Description:
Strand content: 15-25%
Low-confidence stretches: none
Mean pLDDT: 95
Oligomer: single chain
Shape: globular
Amino acid sequence: xxxxxxxxxxxxxxxxxxxxxxxxxxxxxxxxxxxxxxxxxxxxxxxxxxxxxxxxxxxxxxxxxxxxxxxxxxxxxxxxxxxxxxxxxxxxxxxxxxxxxxxxxxxxxxxxxxxxxxxxxxxxxxxxxxxxxxxxxxxxxxxxxxxxxxxxxxxxxxxxxxxxxxxxxxxxxxxxxxxxxxxxxxxxxxxxxxxxxxxxxxxxxxxxxxxxxxxxxxxx
Length: 220
């Protein structure tokens, strides 16, 4: 029931995101509006809103001083995680500001990959079949899946709960009854791999630990 409640709020949040993500909008304003809306709905963010432009595949969130605006040529991905009592609905949308044909093909490929992957999900299915389904679907569009970004299992207060859901055919365990998973295909016209940028914007709290550094204590 908590997963379903988070999912309903997520659906309303996506509707808002589609309305306010437009050319000229500041990405910080979009972020604050979406996070504020989730709070008013009585839920919490499972992670800071990710709003990644163009060749940034994922995991970018603006800092407090960000002044960047969305341009007419931008492809914008919003990754939204919402939690209700720690149970997480995690889903993303990608929007093209100018309906560029390549943008629309990338979006269609990723969305179809999600739909096709969901069709094969049931207890006892190997994650290898999910990855193979995603890979084959995206390749139908003459695009590539990003091989070193994956989906994952989720659990209460655990965004990444241990199980990896690949975007390519790759051996792995089978799904079990009671699991919740996030299927996260990424389609690209690039080489199919990502690399990390030097700046880190998102942190995960694991446990309370003593630290001498004043700035580290503030973060904790």
